Amino acid sequence: MASFSTSSAKAGSSVGGGGWAKAKHQSAGGGGSTLERIQQIELEISRTQKNKATAKHLGELKAKLCKLKRDMLEPSGGGGGKVAGFEVQKIGDARIGLVGFPSVGKSSLLTALTGVQSEAAAYEFTTLTCIPGVIYYNDIRIQLLDLPGLIVGASTGKGRGRQVIATAKSCDIILMVLDPTKDDAQKEMLTKELENVGIRLNKKPPDVTVRPTKGGGLKFQATVPLNHFDEEVCATVLKQYKMHNADVLVREDVTVDEFIDVIDGNRKYCKCIYVYNKIDLLKLEEIDELARRPQSVVVSVQNKWNYDYLLRRLWDEMEIVRVYTKKKGQFPDFSDPIIITPQRGNKLFTVENAVLLLHKSLLEDFKHAFVLGSSVKQSPQVCGKDHILHDQDVVQIVKLTQAEKAKALHGKKTGTTIAGSNIKVEKKKEDKAPLKS
Ligand SMILES: Nc1nc2c(ncn2[C@@H]2O[C@H](COP(=O)(O)OP(=O)(O)OP(=O)(O)O)[C@@H](O)[C@H]2O)c(=O)[nH]1
Ligand SMILES: [K+]
Ligand SMILES: [Mg+2]
């Protein structure tokens, strides 16, 4: 039904790079280009039945496949180099990318949400570069990037695909713009293109730790029953990565693909909202069905439908925490919050995070904080560094007085925990432990 696989002549010629991957990646071991070997392995995987007896073989194939894909994306030597995204300066508190097949209305949406004119037209590949705009929402600035349309094969160099995807990888959230008149094969195809370069949509990093060791082989431990993965498959995958000695701790029911993600590294776990645009072309029942799909929002740029909801959904996905600061005896400064975006690696927003964002040296003088807002039972409440703040809390930092600081410093010097020596003491204990037992 969907006809996205047809990469138009324009796409091929505008890049002059359809065969780039092939030309540059002749495999060292002979037997065709990297691309051909990838296709062979993919075929073999699809033909192999999935059961206990084949799990080890599949694990090996998948690990090989993963390494080949990485070789292709990050060629080592031969003047290749990692593909860079479009050079657009990151501004604001979060970055969101518009990804989709050609002519689904990405540019129209950028213009509608940011006011920045990005050319929109009825022909494919109207946009050939990255156009940034800014959405102002709830005191924060969100950078929205319009990107050229993707086609199938983008991750292997078709169209401006690799550049588009590299830019998408720099985003905190992806808005996948979809054509509501076509089936969801488009969603799967795009997801696959993004997955090929290590972007994982709406997934969490697997709860698995792998610690390389100097000897002792593989030490495998799982804290939950595993239905798709076991020690043997783990060993096969690790062998492909030449890891023969490692401690592996699995804390969730992972698949081999998820385990490879951990080993291979360089994955980007990214939230994604599926935006069905042009719903003005649909019947009400059809709109209703799309709107109920998970992580999906329906809009019509032409009719200006549902922007409010789209923005609210975006906001919720960003899980942004704004914390306002206040000086003693004054009203809080509501104009300039400290902002934490969990997408950028800060899982929780503690008082310590807030202090560090205000000023690094402030932590030395930190005594406690008065916190007002939903994170505390009474407002204000005296809180320490580890207290976790909520969105729209107000914080007043109380510093140590000179006398208190001197006292604290004195205590440190005379006590056993002289600054900096902490780690050494612990390490010594650890070293000695095996001797004792
Ligand atoms: N019916 C309808 N048409 C729309 C809507 N939004 C955009 N269009 C039309 O769809 C066509 C493509 O829009 P663009 O914004 O250029 O799409 P794009 O995804 O940026 O396309 P490329 O840059 O070529 O990848 C234009 O003719 C728009 O007028 C909508 O909500 N309803
Ligand atoms: K277009
Ligand atoms: Mg466009």
Report on this model:
Strands 1, 2, 3, 4, 5, 9 and 10 form a seven-stranded mixed β-sheet that branches. By secondary structure, this protein is α/β, with parallel strands linked by helices. Helix 3 runs antiparallel to helix 4, helix 4 runs parallel beside helix 8 and helix 4 runs parallel beside helix 9. The chain has 15 helices and 15 strands. Among the domains are: 160 residues, P-loop containing nucleotide triphosphate hydrolases (Rossmann fold, 3-Layer(aba) Sandwich); 79 residues, Beta-grasp domain (Ubiquitin-like (UB roll)), CATH 3.10.20; 29 residues, no CATH class.
Secondary structure blueprint with pairings:
Elements: H1 9-15, H2 20-24, H3 34-47, H4 55-73, E1 94-100, H5 106-114, E2 131-137, E3 140-146, H6 161-169, E4 173-178, H7 185-196, E5 199-201, E6 208-212, E7 218-222, H8 231-240, E8 246-250, H9 256-264, E9 268-276, H10 284-291, E10 296-298, H11 307-318, E11 321-325, E12 338-340, H12 351-358, H13 362-365, E13 366-372, E14 381-383, E15 393-399, H14 402-414, H15 422-436
Parallel strand pairs: 1-3, 1-4, 4-9, 5-9, 7-8, 9-10, 11-15
Antiparallel strand pairs: 2-3, 6-8, 11-12, 13-14, 13-15
Helix pairs in contact: 3-4, 4-8, 4-9, 8-9
Bound molecules: guanosine-5'-triphosphate, potassium ion and magnesium ion (MG).
Biased composition (Low complexity): 1-13
Domain OBG-type G: 94-319
Keywords: GTP-binding, Nucleotide-binding
